[in-house]
Fold:
Amino acid sequence: MERSARLQTEDLQIYRSDKEVLSGISFSIASGEVYALLGGNGAGKSTTLLSFLGFLTATSGTITVDGKEVSANLKAIREAIAYLPESASLYEHLNAYENLKYFLQLAGRTVDQAAIDATLDRVSLDPDSRARRLKDYSKGMRQKVAIAVAILRDTDIFLLDEPTSGLDPSAIDEFHDLVRGLADAGKTILMVTHDVYGACQVADRIGLLRKGKLVGEFSAADGQRIETETVHRAFSGRTANTSVDQ
Amino acid sequence: MTAVLSIAAAEWRYWRRSRLALVVVALFVLTLAFVSVLTNMRVAADAEARAHHQEESEETFLSQPDRHPHRMVHYGHYVFRTPTPLATFDPGLDSVTGQAMFLEGHRQNSATFSSSVSSADLGGLSWLTPAVIYQVFAPLLIVILGYGAIVREREARTLAPLLAQGTSAGALISGKLLALFSFALLLVVPLAVTALRSTSDGESASVAASLVALYLLYLCVWIGLTVLVSTVLQKRTTVLATLAACWLTVTLALPAIAVNATSRAEPLAGKIETELTMLNEVRDLGDGHDVDDSVYDALQASLLEEEGVERVEDLDVNIRGVLAGRSEAELTETLNEYAERRMQAESRQARVLNRIGWLTPTLALGAASRAIVGTDLEHYHRFLRQAEALRIEFVQGLNRVHAEELSYTADINRNRDEASSRRARVDASNWEVLETFEYEPAPASERLARASSSLQMLIAWLIALAASLSWAGMRLKP
Structure:
């Protein structure tokens, strides 16, 4: 049975400074699905992602979240989405707990200390570092705190912008496990990345963006992962206009 | 509301941890304390000296022995302008306008400086008063503390996740404004204490409260401007440079340009030139010392006719005293006319200067502050008018004594010999015509009314900034 789309764009076109940055983008993502938007620099990945948050307005076409037009329901939609920017954007003068509490407070969420610790355990943040200010954290550690914020907000939709950029291989694996776990728990995840291997590891479907156009889409067969070689060939331009079900 | 409070609290936490607020507050408190002590010492010493001189001058006048009354007219008397209780905070024009005046017959002297304390005593820093610290330096502290309010979030990329999770731009901006407002409240505490203390020295509570509210309003204008620039511009360095330029322009450059421009737009007639014209007019009035001056023929004739006598010696009054009184009244009318003309020209100039407050809130605040405290131009004029009222009252009192207590015969023979000279004196008790002088500043209602136009300027600034912030908030994106 076809699952209902939680995130959807329909013939999306966006202009920035009189330049077309997205053209005719149409895709949808259902609950429990991890969708990776793959593309090189300037392909329009982050632009697509930010359009779901209403930071960019569609010149034409539609962007909907749970069937609601984003521009008309900005506040409600933002409250329903957890967004993880490319570089974990947190406060360096605060420690992990303080960062979490501040973001959650502003999101209107009250979370007890036990839940916070449980989530930090889940993202594998070393307990000894939690009370240290983030200025002493590595990028991976910051990313874990940012993910913890997203998890603790308890939203159903996650937008992840280059989430594994700058992480070491073991941290990437841990992150992928976490994303899969969230998807298995029914969360909807849209991640943008230029990491072909990572996308194939974690995504149920991959959309390939090139120069603002969705030029290919790859889906995994049941219980399988998307084949890296196929996607890599398309990504590097050796095949195009691909729609592959493996 | 919870979000706004959380953002404000987070801003304070950032300031505390970066030690920025601590350094800024310490700097402000130290400068303010230093300047307050110096200004207090100066104004208090001035006030004490003026009160002492006033008392001494009155005692000296009243303790004069029996004399010819017209000698007392020329003996003269000093009056001093005592500072208002809040002049320790904003001495305003006190340091550039005279505070003492020598009162004597036939002349309206300029106000002079009573004390030797001048800029030189403070190493040229007498312009640095607590009011100036608030008007010029407090905005700088707000800029230093607040310039990163929004742009810091943008540069640290925390703006995107905040907005993305539904925190509204309005809440974010309001939180930053609230944090800076609470800092401004802290800044005005020393002023509030000064204002409170002034009420025990006789200052009106409404004046004291209005002064605190006025400065808080001014700081709010700076808070609005700081957060607005921080919201609109994209880089911290650009924000800081823009705000520094605004600070320099608004607090220093524009007021200085405004003063020069006003002098050109509303020039005052030169003092020497005016006095020469006035002297020509005064010469036509006649000499009150000379009974034979033809200008007074009609007056003499009417007095003789009134009393039905032929000679001035037979009049009940001393014609010399009557003429002195008439001459002084006519002279005073002319002098007052010139004085009023000059004061009106000065007031016009001040009004033009105050209107430039629409361009710079510092100028608007300065005008309102001086008006409320009682150290503005109008209060200086008030002193001149009160001093003149006393001068004409005691001079005419002495002329009446001259006319009524001293016979004409004794008067004209006063230089014949020692005995004649003694006969031409009146009793020293007549010197009681001199009233005690106590400078009365304008009542609170008048001072507040005079500050209202500047207050409107500050409110207009605040409304414009609020509207701009609301516009910038609607367009705020990471």
Summary: Helices of chain A lie at 45-51, 74-80, 96-106, 113-122, 139-152, 169-184, 196-202, 228-235. Residues 70 and 76 of chain A are 9 Å apart (CA to CA).
